Every structure is written in C-alpha cells, then in structure tokens.
Amino acid sequence: MDPAPARLTVGIVSAGRVGSALGVALERAGHVVFGVAAISDASVHRARTRLPEARVLPIEQIAQRSELLLLAVPDAELAGLVRGLAGANVVRPGTIVVHTSGANGVAILEPLTQQGALGLAIHPAMTFTGHDEDIARLANACFGVTAADEVGYAIAQALVIEMGGEPVRVEEDQRSLYHAALAHGSNHLVTVIVDAVAALRESLSGPGLLGQPLVDDQPGGLPERLLAPLASAALDNALRRGQAALTGPVARGDVDAVAAHLAALEQVDDRLAEAYRANSLRTAQLAHTDPALLELLAKEGH
C-alpha cells in the first residue's frame, strides 16, 4: 500500500463541528467528500454550508462507498457505531477508517480491521465551536495519531500534513493520559477563566466614575478586557518558561493575601472559593512555597 494517500473518496459520520471542519480540510487537500451523515438540524445546516457538494446520506451508504471513512462522533458513541458497521458488513476491505476520538487508539476499530479495513486514530488537538475559526485553526493544530503499524502511521501522517496540521505519534496505551492532559489544559482553563470573570464582575458591580454601572452581564465587557491581557501573558509565559512563570501571592507564600482571597471568594460563591483553594494548593506545591501556606490550604480543604 502506498503510504501517501492519493485522491480519496471520503464519507463522514457525522457532520458535527469536528467532522465538517476536517471535511473542508480534506477537500482543500484534493480529496472528494461525497457524503455525510447528519441527523440534527444543526448538522444538516453545517453540512450544507461547509460541504455543499456532499450529499446527506444514510450511514450504511456512506460506509459502502467510502475509500476514507471518517468517524467523527462523540467518544461515547464510537464503539457502538463501529460494532454496528461491522455487524452490517458495509465497510469494504481496504477502506481507511479514521476516528477522531482523543481518548481512543485503534483497538476500538478492531471489529472493522478484522474485516480488512485499515484503522487509524487521528485526533485534532483543538477545540471546535462550530464557527468559521475552527477551519482556520486546523492549520496550526497538532494531531495525535495512532496506528497499528508503520504503514498506518505513514498514511496518518500524510493525511494530517495534507490538512495543514502537525502529526504527533501517540502510542495505543498512552491515549487516555494524552487525552486527560489535553482536557486538563483546555477545558479546565475555560472553567478558571469563567470563574475569574464572574468574580471580577462582582468586584466591579458598583458605579463607575460617572455614576453609571461599570459592568453588565454580557460577555466581552470590562471584566473580560481586564483579564484578557493578563491571562494571555500568563499562558504565553507558561508555554515558554514552564514552572518559572508562576507569580502572585501563592508562589510568594503570602499567607495573609491568600486567606483574604478565600474569604472574599466565599462571600460570592463557596464553590468558586473551593476551586481557588484547590488550584492554590497545587500552585503552592509546584512553587515549593511557604510551608505555612501549604498547611493553611490543606487544612481548609478538608
């Protein structure tokens, strides 16, 4: 088998945020997306908008006609979909079957690989919102790839490069750790920012200099403008300098300041204060800070 994919006939299950974005990238690379599975109104609209030349078809028809079958369904649905396709015996031998699940390698595709398909795990390490920026961001994204052999890795690498991404090899037994790290660094970052914006909004709830309210409940306002440059700089510093980027009262071991923070946050939301305490404890551990602060945070956490 030639490790560099030629022009392929591509079918996608389903036309969600990920599948439709990858479909556009594959079309731009010269492949032909002939059909997509789309059930919800949002998926149908996304398919018609992003992939207007593709037809919305039943899954079985897509599987039968595909040379490259892209399974872009939620992690929890993947195993059932694979079993169903194998049971229907609709995937032709030699078909390249790619799933986009971050948590899974190629073992989950075994019912299809036993029937002669080539199974690949190709996970874009990117968040998808359903908006146009999804497609543009693929050009700067890494993709975690897992295959059963070197031929599979070569094909996965070629597909990722064609889509404008950077392929990164992830071993089968490391997929859960790989996925956990990405979820921790992205999903939990959103939670921290949302909590911080909520606390800022509360702290700025009084009148401004001209007697008008400083903030309202709409996103993109003053709290976000206050936090954006600081959060952006912190993220950049962390990626450039690692642990050395830690600053602030926890890293300095300022027990009084951290205690005051906790008291203020508890007045707003006990859950927010508890999240701050947990993150402060981990920060203090990384910074090897004042043992008195570690004791305070550990004691308060029980």
Automatic annotation (TrEMBL):
InterPro entries in UniProt: 6-PGluconate_DH-like_C_sf, DUF2520, NAD(P)-bd_dom_sf, OxRdtase/DH_put_Rossmann_dom, TM1727-like_C_sf
Domain Putative oxidoreductase/dehydrogenase Rossmann-like: 4-124
Domain DUF2520 residue range list: 142-282
Name by which UniProt lists this protein: Putative short-subunit dehydrogenase-like oxidoreductase (DUF2520 family)
Organism: Nocardia fluminea
